[in-house]
Amino acid sequence: MRSFVRSALESGDDLVDVDVVEASGGFEALRLLPRGPYDLVITDINMPDINGLELIQFVRNNPHHRATPILLISTQSSERDRSRALSLGADGYVVKPFTPEELRARVKGLLEKGRTSAGGDG
Description:
The chain is mainly α and about 120 residues long. The chain has one domain (about 1-115): 3-Layer(aba) Sandwich (Rossmann fold), CATH 3.40.50. About 45% of the residues lie in helices and about 10% in strands. It is built from 5 helices and 3 strands, in the order ααβαβαβα. Strand 2 (about 70-75), helix 4 and strand 3 form a beta-alpha-beta unit. It is globular and about 35 Å long.
C-alpha cells in the first residue's frame, strides 16, 4: 500500500514537488515526526505497532504538528468508522480500494486547505 500511495503521489501533473517520507509502521512514524514539519500525514488504520487512530492522537497532541492535515486510509467503510477517525482529528478519510486520481485529489484538497488555514486565524 505504501508503494501504491508513493507512486500515486509522485505521478500525475496535479501535484507538484511532492516529497514522500515513508514509515513502515506507527513507531517509525513517531520517530520521523520530529524531523518535520510535514505538509500532510497519510496513515492507514491498520499498521504494525500502533494503529492509525493512535497515530492521529499522537500527532494532534504534539504542538509542532497539531495543525498538520491528516488523511486516513482504511478498508473500513462504515459511517461509524469514518466519524470516529474524524472525531480523533483526521481531516479526510479514504476507503480502499481507491484510484491514484482520487488519492491525489484528496491530498491536493487537504494541502490547499492547510495553506489557507495557515494564513488565516494564526
